[in-house]
Structures are given as C-alpha cells and as structure tokens.
Amino acid sequence: MRNDRHGARVNCRETGSGETVVMLHSSASSGSQWRALMGTLRGRWHVVSPDLYGYGETDAWPGTRQFSLSQEAALIDAVLPSDGHPVHLVGHSYGGAVALRFAMQQPHRVRSLVLIEPVAFHLLWDTAPAEENRALFREVRTIASAVSRAATRGDYRSAMARFIDYWNGKGAWSRLQPPLQAELARRIPKIALDFWAAMTEASSAADYRGIGAPTLVLCGSRSPAPAQRIAEIVAASLSRSRLQTIEGAGHMLPLTHPEIVNAAIATHLFRCRSESHPAAA
Questions:
Q1: What is the pLDDT of residue 87?
Q2: pTM above 0.70?
Q3: How many angstroms separate the CA atoms of 196 and 230, rounded?
Q4: What does the domain layout of the chain look like in residue ranges?
C-alpha cells in the first residue's frame, strides 16, 4: 500500500525492472485486469498496476472536493518511481481517460501512451460533426443517468446490469454467476463517479495537442459507437498517434482478445524504447 496526497491508501501491483510502464484499468475492474500483460512485460520492464479509487484494495475517493478526472489522475503520482524518469502509460476505458488527463497535465512525465478506447465522453460535445457526436454523447448520458438514478435509490443490481449490458452486449449480465454479480453491483457508486468525471471534464480536443508522446490508440470494431468515435477523435487530436482497430472485438478487448492487444502494446513499447523523442511537443 502507498498513500496519495489526500491520505487515501493506494494498492499497487509491481514487478520487473527497467523502464516503468503504468497500467490503468477500466471502471468496475482493478489492477488485476493486467495480470497477463504484466507477465508478458516483466522480463524487460518495471510494471506498475494500481487499483484506482474505490476499486480493488484502494480506498474510496476521500471526498475532499468535487470528483474529476484530474483528481483520479493525481493518484498516479503515488505510484510513480522516485527517480523522476518519464513513464509509459497504458489505460483502458475509464483508465484511458485518466491516462489522457495525466498526460495533458504532465506531458514531461510521459514517454509513451497506449489508450484502449478511452471514455473521454466530453470530447463528443465540442467536436465535428457536432450533431452526430452530440447524439452519441446523449446515448452515453442516458446510460449514465440510469446508473446514477438506480444508485441513488439503492438498486445497485439494476444499475450494474444496465452498465454491463451496454458495454458487453445484451444478456451479458444474465450470463454472469451470482457471486460475481453481487461483487460487481457493490461498485456502482464509484462507477457513477467515473461517468460524472468523464462527462464533465472541461478540457477539449485542442487541449490534448500538447501531448507529444507517441501514442497507440486501440479500438474494437464491435464496440459501442461512442467509444469508437472517441478513439477516432483522440487519435486525430494527438500529434504522434496511430489508431489500430481490432476486428471482431468489443469494448472489453484487453480481456476478450488479450493475445492481439498485448502483442500490440508490447510492440509499441519496444518501438518507443528504441526511439529518442521529446516528452512534449
């Protein structure tokens, strides 16, 4: 355990040696999501996989101020090595949005980025084509509102069922075993905060153009339309980015297509390690 600047206990998995790779998980998950990738990389990399606020064994957000992506990104400071060297950041879904925010705030500390369908929902509101993208934003807002309302009245299972089925396809919730359903349902209060942070973020696509780190953006061909569109916006906004679509994959592609995703991440990391580049444009 480590402590963040608010005094919250931050759980972090750590293995290997070499340049540091920090991996940020999706909502409703934990750092254990990256177990296979950590095993792949630990022979040549120092791999760090924290649990974000309210997940795994990390304390809940202490509530010292309004929650935001910036507040979640500050947790990364608690797990960075003390040598001050820039790190490679890998983030999936909500973790991708957090990684993007961290890279915008502290570009000098990021050597490279891998963003797997970052749910930076706010980018749908101020980018072209405006009408189409705002319709996608409203689609997400419908899900977020349903989750928030159900969480407020204590109907965690209903909220989690809506969340799981949206990201994984209709019927995904019903196929889960009851103990896992119960475990996931307990995470609804933090999922509601994650939605809030990703949808109310004030930064724009233009704000991310200062990120000069080479970036791989991964997207599933069968993911919900808002996630696919955000991946396109992010890839177009960053100066040194490349968008790769994984055919047949959905939003949970690190878990459903781990061999393809992990190979793409490893290739990107090795390529970046062999290059000399500025940390910021």
A1: 97
A2: yes
A3: 17
A4: 2-124+203-274, 130-197
